[in-house]
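Duplicate of #3305? Posting structure anyway:
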């Protein structure tokens, strides 16, 4: 039996089209990014609830959410999205978690002429060279990560090595970071890429240390771009990079990953979200509801999923209640809406959501078993010149 022949058994929805508004969540429900996926789905459902005042209806029309599991496999993701748009007749799809899976899904949205809201996959190429007009992204892209981290880490006489996973997320992230550092005085002097499932970072770290040992610079930093398991930061920190005058730096991450940050108080970077940073009514509601329902704070991708859910509702309302694709595109281009991170705006040129990012430093705080990202500076929409890459 071929892989594609087994797909029907891997999808987690019925294909009966019952509700008037059908939203497909096509995401990596199982696999290495399962924690991200769970947060994303909880956030999506909370966003739909928040935006509809708990009715799960838009102008009296009920919303149905259909779930499909990509298993982090591009072929499965592609087929799942086709199933969502085809047999399930979903009007809008949201997802996936993985950038590699997202890139495989983009042509399906174009083929079916249906909206795909990408959340939380990050690679620039999703709204860059591989973009089409049916793609909108509420998640941040690699350039937003890169520019905010360049603000946090850049400066005169700073030498930076990078460690990233060897696929679209890692390579796009480093490329955007290199570009963002231009003009800051900092320079990337070494790039290291390893497989996504790497758990032993000894060889990679030694190559980085050797490359940095001969560099003359006042500050030497190792900037890590990582998603999922493996925890390279703790592994490399245990090798004592200070022997080579190297400091570890990285962007934000989910709470479970922040346990490694506790080992590095004073670490700087930029993050997409931490629940105590944004001060706005949407985030207040999210934090309160999440503690009430799950006895824990909302996490990185919970906020992103909520932003996507609110965007779906606001787009349909802006389109006068229509789920017609062309009406939705017209409504969404330039649309602003309120999220747990404050105002987001879909840029008309590439449908990337412009949004705030947060320069942070890590603190050890009593009662928390992770390094707490404490706000240094909020970088708003107008503080970052995010390149348009789909031209």
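Output from current build:
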């Amino acid at each position: 039996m071929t892989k594609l022949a087994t797909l029907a058994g891997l999808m987690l929805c019925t294909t009966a089209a019952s509700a008037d508004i059908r939203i497909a969540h096509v995401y990596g429900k199982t696999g290495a990014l399962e924690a991200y996926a769970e947060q994303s789905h909880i956030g999506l459902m909370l966003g739909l609830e928040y935006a509809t005042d708990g009715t799960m209806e838009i102008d009296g029309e009920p919303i149905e959410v259909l779930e499909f599991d990509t298993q982090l496999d591009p072929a499965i993701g592609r087929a799942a999205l086709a199933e969502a748009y085809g047999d399930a007749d979903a009007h809008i799809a949201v997802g996936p978690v993985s950038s590699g899976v997202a890139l495989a899904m983009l042509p399906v949205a174009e083929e079916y002429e249906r909206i795909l809201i990408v959340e939380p996959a990050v690679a620039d190429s999703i709204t860059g060279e591989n973009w089409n007009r049916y793609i909108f992204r509420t998640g941040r892209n690699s350039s937003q990560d890169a520019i905010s981290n360049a603000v946090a880490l850049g400066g005169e006489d700073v030498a930076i090595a990078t460690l990233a996973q060897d696929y679209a997320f890692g390579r796009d992230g480093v490329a955007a970071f290199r570009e963002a550092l231009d003009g800051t005085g900092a320079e990337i002097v070494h790039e290291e890429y390893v497989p996504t499932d790497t758990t032993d970072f000894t060889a990679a770290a030694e190559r980085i240390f050797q490359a940095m040992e001969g560099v003359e610079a006042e500050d030497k930093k190792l900037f890590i771009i990582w998603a999922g398991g493996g925890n390279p930061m703790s592994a490399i920190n245990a090798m004592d990079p200070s022997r080579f005058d190297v400091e570890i730096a990285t962007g934000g991450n989910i709470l479970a990953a922040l346990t490694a940050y506790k080992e590095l108080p004073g670490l700087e970077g930029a993050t997409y979200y931490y629940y105590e940073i944004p001060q706005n009514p949407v985030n207040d509601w999210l934090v309160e509801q999440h503690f009430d329902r799950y006895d824990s704070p909302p996490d990185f991708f919970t906020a992103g999923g909520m932003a996507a859910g609110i965007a779906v509702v606001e787009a349909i309302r802006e389109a006068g209640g229509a789920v017609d694709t062309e009406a939705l595109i017209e409504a969404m281009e330039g649309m602003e809406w309120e999220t747990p991170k404050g105002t987001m705006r879909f840029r008309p040129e590439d449908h990337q959501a412009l949004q705030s990012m947060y320069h942070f430093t890590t603190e050890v705080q009593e009662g928390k078993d992770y390094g707490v990202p404490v706000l240094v500076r909020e970088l708003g929409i107008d503080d970052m010149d995010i390149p348009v890459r789909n031209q």
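Confirmed duplicate; merging threads. The longest strand covers residues 61-69. The chain has two domains: 4-140+279-354, 143-271+358-383.
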